[in-house]
Amino acid sequence: MTLVLVPAFLLSLLGLSAIATVGDAGRSLANWKQQAFFLPLGLIGATIAACVPLHLLRKHAGILGLLVAGLLVLLLLPGVPESLVRPRNGARRWISLVVFDLQPSELARVAWCLLMARLLYTGDAHRRLSGLLRPVALTAIAGGLIVVEPDLGTTLLFVPAFVTMLIAAGGRIRHLLMCFVPAALIPVLVIGGMLLAPETGEARLSHVLKPHQVDRIVAYTAQLRGDPRYDDDIGYQAAKALLATASGGVTGLGREGAARAVRLSGLPEAHNDMVFAVLVAQHGALGAVVVLGLYGALGIGGLLIARSCTHPFGRLVAVGITTMLVSQALVHASMTLGLLPITGITLPLVSYGGSSLVTTWGMIGVLVGLAMTPSGRKQEERWDFAFGTNPS
Q1: DSSP letter string over 49-106?
Q2: How confident is the model at residue 386, as a pLDDT?
Q3: 111 alpha carbon, distance to own chain's centre
Q4: How many CB atoms lie within 10 A of CB 138?
Q5: Exposed end of the chain (fewer CB within 10 Å): N or C?
Q6: What are 96's strand-pairing partners?
Q7: How crowded is residue 28: how many other Cβ atoms within 10 Å of its Cβ?
Q8: What pLDDT is recorded for position 277?
Q9: Rounded CA separation 68/74 (Å)
Q10: 351: helix, coil or strand?
């Protein structure tokens, strides 16, 4: 439990420091105050989540899933007044609740983990290739409602959690390979085609992707080729992120130096989508190692909690939540460093955003609750992860 709570709290403090660093004095102070306001709410939410009995999480997972699905549909309904759902940069992701904006996709990650754990716990159909249909359908519904907002980045986070939960539930790795290897080859072939023939590849992508998605892939492949012609256009954010990151050197510039570097680089969305670049500018490469180390510790702590769970449902929930958080952090850091295309994924517990912060702390609270579940006496018969025959 300590391996989860301590890194999470330290990351939240680092987030407050980074948010106070960027923007003009008035804006950074306002953002810091709002984030500082939501941190105690997140801790309260974590406390409440930790106190919810495991059987209630399992029992009411369906109700939570329906509620979240309704909120996601509300975002997409035409005619919804802008006072309730106001598009930002062409995306409909937030519901205005006057005091704060609610992002249903954050809640969707929690609901999906609970529903997936319950689905896998109730039988062993997922150990057959045909039995993957229901888990895939559940993931496709959740991801489909989010990707049309559009929010491709959050949708992609379901993939690693899906794989790890299936493996933890005893799913056959060969079945996962049969499903995901062809899918994984698609982006590899797309990126390879763009590197070899940029104009032809761009024309083909325009038939299946939205313009802003095509722009991100074009900018990313140009960056890989060392082509700077998009740095002031569609590749602006990625180029500025690399510039701000490189300014930190080994030990960092400190708060004032990082604020100046971020301001001079013109880094957009520095307080949320690009906050890792701010941390590296402030604390250097050593700071980046520490930040990633904290996420590593959180991941290890989450998996240790999963291992100690006597109930298979709780074990699967712990695996899903842990994978979600760690994979999100890795994707955010990778896109900031130019290793992946920009997808608009925030850094959990660090990036600005009250809805994200409270929800993430709620996920931490679920892990803490699982860790506090008595292990000396089996609440139910342990799930034998190797039970059954050898289904094909």
Answers
A1: HHHS-HHHHHHTHHHHHHHHHHHHHHHH-TT--TTTS--BTTB---EE-SSSEE-HHH
A2: 40
A3: 14
A4: 17
A5: C
A6: 101
A7: 18
A8: 92
A9: 10
A10: coil
Token pair listed for 289:
């190692």
- Please give the pLDDT value at position 383: 45
Angle between helices 312-336 and 158-168 (to 10 degrees): 150
Q: Which residues of 355-391 are buried (b: 16+ CB within 10 A; e: fewer)?
A: bbbbbbbbbbbbbbbbbeeeeeeeeeeebeeeeeeee
> The whole model's pTM is what?
0.87
pLDDT score for 264: 85
C-alpha–C-alpha distance, residues 44 and 365, integer Å: 9
* pLDDT lower than 50: segments of the chain: 376-392
Q: What share of the chain is helix, strand, coil (3-state, %, to 5)?
A: 70, 0, 30
CA distances from 52 to 112, 259, 325, 374 (A): 17, 42, 21, 14
In the chain, where the domains are located: 2-372
Q: Which amino acid is at 122?
A: T
Give Cα 127 distance to the centre of its chain.
27
Structure tokens at 312: 């298979």
Q: State residue 384's pLDDT score.
A: 44
